[in-house]
Amino acid sequence: MLRFPRCTALLTLLMTLGLTLGAASPLAAKPLRLVTDPETLDLIDEIAQPLVAAAGLPKDSVRYYVVLNPTLNAFALADQRIVFHSGLLAMARNRDELAAVIAHELAHLAAGHHIKLKSDLRRASIQSLITMAAGLAAGLASGNSKAVQAGMVGGQAAARSGLLAAMRQKESQADQLAVNYMGGAHYDPHGVSSFMDLLNREQRMSVKPPAYLVTHPLGQERLSAAEDLVAHAPATTVRPDHQSERLLRARAKLMAGTASDPNAMANHFVELLKQGRYTATDPERFAWRYGHALALLYAGRLLEALEEFNGLLKEAPDDLYILRHRGLTYLEMGDAKRARRDLRRALAQRPDHPDLRLRLAQALKADGEPEEAARMLRRLTLEHPDEADPFYVLGVIEGQQGRLGASHLALARYYALLLQRKNARWHYQQALQKLPEKDPARALIKAELKELKEKE
Q1: Which end of the chain is more exposed for a tag (fewer CB within 10 A), N or C?
Q2: C-alpha Rg value of the chain to the nearest Å
Q3: From CA 201, how far away is CA 382, in angstroms rounded?
Q4: Structural domains counted in the chain
């Protein structure tokens, strides 16, 4: 049977959702764009691992996601998931400030600051969960009882005032735990007060406070309390900072990825390179060149992007992240063979990464090897059943190869993950019509279709 992603019946308190109060959520209004390449997520995971251990959470139990959104925001979801807006990553000035945000959200998870979701929302793709979280936060903020009751259980939907009143207490608790986790992980605890001070200055300079501050309220009392916590934190030996260069690269990538005008952003990177007095090995110079290449790619200036990626790979020939982007550039240009070459080189360094496997499968399909692509995607969907996109690509390939029953089944699972139940049900029914009577997949389809109907 298809194992829908096991998102428990818990969603974190409103303050860990961190979404703008009193206004429609930007996440609810626009389709979500998740960062799926390994680079930014690997950086977050690497910084987070010592904090997870300090929080007493099981290793590899927390998953991290980045939404391409320029606003400053972060929140935790049930089932040990933390979501960052790209704007927050762009604002963090160093590793320890980013670590402080991660520590704070881990504290909410470890402290169990939760409210319950209705059972029919327990299983969904991460995109659907984030969108639902946005709707819940907006409903709580605006008093829209229909929006709240769509996702929350029973009397908790009416407890808006109680939830909002609990914010300051929960935030203070999370602040204290974050300082403890920072010290236990051998990060500089001053990252907590430093990031709060940055937020406080942003708040003073803006008519409308950052979304993170609305549901992570930051008054002077809380800021002073955090500074006091840091001042009295036990001394710790701070671990060497190996993430500074990678944070610069992640910031450049996010600048390119969130730009409304990629051409203007490409020009911006050129100006940054002209203004700086960089040595040949300066990490900031490399980061701005990387951002320039990505902006060119997003602007559709493929030959120029390819030239920039080639130059970067001369300096870092085995960099899997640049190999991935050059491979995707080749794929956009219709050169599937070169795309396969680069993506295989990248995948050799991270053989279990879902995104790299999906991208290689797409390159294989484009290069006239759909059967190998289908085999790769079948394994991928079995190992990562909560990833929606591989089901869609698999469904397309199966259909093109004439396996219509398998195609409809993959597409049914894709739409089920997106909570588009009408589409999912239609594809399940088509799969039953197309598959032979003795096909063992029919029993799985009937079970999944029954589960789907129970949620309507």
Answers
A1: C
A2: 23
A3: 47
A4: 1
pLDDT of the chain, 456 residues: tens digit per residue: 333 233 322 233 333 333 322 223 334 445 567 787 788 999 999 999 999 999 999 998 998 988 877 777 788 877 788 888 888 888 899 999 999 999 999 998 998 865 444 444 445 556 566 665 655 444 434 434 344 444 444 444 444 444 445 566 777 888 899 999 999 999 999 999 998 888 777 766 655 555 454 455 556 777 788 889 999 999 899 999 988 889 999 999 988 987 889 999 999 999 999 987 788 778 899 999 999 999 999 999 999 999 999 999 999 999 999 999 999 999 999 999 999 999 999 999 999 989 999 999 999 999 999 999 999 999 999 999 988 999 999 999 999 999 999 999 999 999 998 888 999 999 999 999 999 999 999 999 999 999 888 776
What's the token pair of residue 222?
């809380």
Buried b (16+ CB within 10 A) or exposed e, 426-440: ebbebbbeebeeebe
Give the pair of three-digit tokens for residue 82: 């933390």
Domain for residue 57, yes or no? yes
How much is the pTM?
0.77
Nearest Cα neighbor of 397 from 418, 367, 432 is 367
Tokens of 138: 């907006």
**What is the Cα–Cα distance from 5 to 123, expressed in whole angstroms?**
5
Domain that holds residue 179: 10-231
Q: If we measure between CA atoms, which residue out of 5, 80, 92 comes closest to residue 40?
A: 92
Asked, for residue 449, whether it belongs to a domain, the answer is no
Beta bridge partners of 34: 67
Beta strands 81-85 and 114-116: pairing type? Answer: unpaired
Is there a domain that residue 409 lies in? no
- Please indicate, yes or no, if residue 358 is contained in any of the structural domains: no
Tokens read off for 128: 């659907």
